[in-house]
Structure formats: structure tokens, C-alpha cells
Amino acid sequence: MLPSILKKVAQTHGSSVAYLTADGEAITYKQLDHYSEEIAAWMRFKGIREGSVVALCLPSQIEYILSYLAVAKLGAVTAGVNPRFTAAERKNILKLLRPDLVVTAHDWDQGIQDEWHVEYIRFAEQTTDLMIENRRKDPAIEVLPPDPDRPVCICFTSGSTGEPKGAWFKNRQLQAISDLDTGGAWGGSGHRYASTEFAHVGVMTKLPWLLASAGTTHLLDKWRAESVLRLIHDYRIPAVSAIAPQVALMLRVENLSRFDFSSVQAIVTGGASASPDLVAAGREIFGAPWSIRYSSTESGGVGLGTALDAKQEEALHSVGRPRQGVKASIRNNEGQLLPDGEIGEIWMRSNAVMSGYWNDEKSTDEVIVNGWLRTGDLAIVDDSGCFRLAGRIKEMFIRGGYNIFPLEVESVISEHKQVEEVVVVPREDEVMGEIGVAVVVPSDPKSPPTLESIQNHAKNSLASYKVPEAISIVSMLPRNSSDKIDRREIQKREKR
């Protein structure tokens, strides 16, 4: 699928810029096709064939995209390894993958063992020199026949509730994602910026429609709020694409009035919850509607979302409804459907759901049941049919016999005017078994909220047993390699 789309775009929009670096170096779609063809020839010389597994331990630069495309042209499988993983995580991931080839570069190879076939690349300052040492002339790569069941990529989960697992996808799922995901409409053939690491499901499974749009993707040496705002201003980018904490950082940039946001038609966020106050502020500053997306690596990055024309209740307090082509339901531990208003696990079904976890049949069987994906996330469906998250199954704790769902409590506390961010975690208690601790990043470090003020605020919306009984003030919350809050680390710190 990827090779045919690239070939078509190279023929029709060959001179259009596909990627533009922060230093102003550009690569066209014609160059993207030509260079990846030569890299494919080099990889074939190194023994890569249809069905081989190639791990990319590289930063999110043009070299990553070229390598991914080259692997696809050989009918092999690309496994993206998040460059933010630790050496230990990288080592464990490679042990799980058992790759035929690891492509990396100096300073990005920590944790890679001698047991693997490793090839190094050198980063080039000019487009014409991109991976010049890893390209072979006159490649004559055989065009493989279409095969919807050919594995294409492996995307690793963030590991927020355990060790990262490799969700793998075939051509048919990438096609389904292109058909289901309307996100490709934002930016069209214009400009956009890379908001996630390339190893993320948001790039690995969605590269087909990103290429098909023939648009220009701007690369960032490092994500910085002001740099992204400058790109939106300079290139009239139509969508603010980010996770909620990134939008919060954008809104903190000084003198926002110097930027022109009149091109922005939508704010689209996923991967982290957005507080009602943040959504309201973002909509006001950018002058555009905000759509909150809910999905996962396993779902192919496609799931639920709030409508851009949603009413206040949906826009501020839910993750919306299943998107076109997606089915979702709330079920109990036995997989039975629950009535609206009861908390249970979200099950999803679509043609975009992963084939399974790579080399992990046991975990695959646990999460895919008769074609349905068990997400591990808890939610309720309200009277309007919108889904409201209540947290992860593994995050739930029990206080005095009552189940506490942290996200439910956090949603209320986040509306406290002195709270910037909050996470609720359990702490052992001799009487109640466990109690809730509100770990708070204050809006103003000089004036943090007190436990009493948090409790008084929460009691207006929550049963008394759900209200936190301890508070911890911190300057920031730890995050993992996917910028999700690292609850395990917080709970470890708060354990007494």
C-alpha cells in the first residue's frame, strides 16, 4: 500500500515538498520515492526480504521516513522504537521483536545488543546526502503484488500500565485507517507539523493518507510551544494537532496576540485528557472548535471523538461518540453489555484494530475477543450517548469496600481554579485499606490549594468516599515516552 501511494504521489506531485526540516532542508515527493528505492536496494543487499523485521532506532527525522518506506518496498515489516525509550526498554523491545536488522545511529543505540544485525546511518546536513552511504544505485526493486494481509508495521504501546507491547498491522488495516480517519482532511495538500514521534501509531499507521494528501510536514528538532505557534502563523496551518498538555504550554507563551490564528479551523487532541477550563481557553484563543479524540495504539489510532459543533456538555466533559466505521460499547468483566450510566470497560470494534501483539499470543487473546478490542479503559455512556472516561481498570482502587475511579475524581478537581493538573493515586491505609491522594500541580506555585479547599470543591460533585483524604503539591507530573502521565511513578513516590 505505502509503495503504490508514494509512487503515485511522486508522479503527480513530484516537485512538492514532502518534509521540511527546522533548518530549512526540504525533500520532495520525487526524492522521497527515489531515495527510498535506493535504500531498499541497500537493505536487500543486507539480506532483508519480504516478511523480514526491521527495527528503526532513530529520531523522528527524514531518515526515519525514508527507512520505513524502503522496508515497505521490500514487503518487510517496520518496527518503530520510540527514541525516548530508555536503554532498558529498547533492549527488552528488541528481545521481543527478534529483528532481522536494526537501523540506528550513534547516540541512538543505547541498549542495542551485539546479538542483532545492526547497521548505522549518518545524518546528513543536505537533502542530496540523505543516507548516501546506505543507498545503492540502479536498484531495480521488484514491485510486489498487492496483498491486504501482508504485515507492514509494529507500533509499541507507551507502557503506561506495564511493559510496552508491539501492536502489528497489515495493509488492510492501514487501508481501513485511511478510510476511517478524517484527520487527513486537516491540512489537506497544505502545511502541517509533526506533533508526535514517528514511531507513534499516529504516524506509522497513518502515513498512507499523509503521503496521499501531498502536503508538507514541518519537522521540529524538539517540540517547543512557541516554535509550533510560529509555524501555524507563518504557514497558515488549519489545525492545532497535539496532546492536551502541549496545548496548555502553547497558551502559556507570552504575548500570544503577535500570532495570527485566523487560519485555524480545528483543535484536535488525543492521548491525554483535557480539562474543561483548558478546552474553553483553547477555543477562545485559537477561535476554533476543539475535538477530543479517544483511541489507542491497539485500535490503530481510530476510536471516539467529540463533534466540532458539539454542545458544551459533550465538548467539555466527554470523549464523544464512536467515529464513523467504529463500534463501541460498555461491558462488565464477563463481557456482558451494561446499561447506560453504569461504569464498565470500553470495547471497540473496527477494521482498523490491530492484528495482535507481536510474538505475544497470550496477551493478544486477552484483549481481542471475537473481533472486539478490550481497551482496558473504564467509562460510562450518558443520556446523550456520549462516552465519559473513568480511568483505567488497573488504576481503580478500593476505599472501605467502595470502588474509586481516579479519572472521575480528577475531572472534578481539575475545575478547581488553583489546580493546573491533578492525578489521584491510592495510598495504603490501616483503616480503609486505601485512600485517595490528590497529586496537584498548582496554577500558581506561590498559592497552592489546600486539602480543605480541594475537599470542599469535590464534595459538591462527588460522594464523600470518593473525595481525596491527602494532598501532595508538586511542580510537575512525571511523563513517559509518549507524554502520558506516568501513574506508576507517581504512585511509587506517594507510597508511604
Keywords:
496 residues, five-stranded mixed β-sheet, single chain, GMP Synthetase, Chain A, domain 3, seven-stranded mixed β-sheet, Rossmann fold, alpha/beta, 3 domains, 24% strand, 15 helices
Mind explaining what this structure looks like?
This protein is an alpha/beta fold and 496 residues long. The chain has three domains: 2-212, ANL, N-terminal domain (Rossmann fold), CATH 3.40.50; 219-391, 3-Layer(aba) Sandwich (Rossmann fold); 396-494, ANL, C-terminal domain (GMP Synthetase, Chain A, domain 3, 2-Layer Sandwich), CATH 3.30.300. 28% of the residues lie in helices and 24% in strands. It contains 15 helices and 26 strands. The strands form six sheets. A seven-stranded mixed sheet has the order 6-5-3-4-7-8-18, sandwiched between helices. Strands 11-12-13-14-15 form a five-stranded mixed sheet. Strands 16, 17, 19, 20 and 21 form a five-stranded antiparallel sheet that branches. Helix 10 links the parallel strand 12 (266-269) and strand 13. The protein is globular. The relative contact order is 0.09. The model is unreliable at 182-187 (pLDDT under 50).
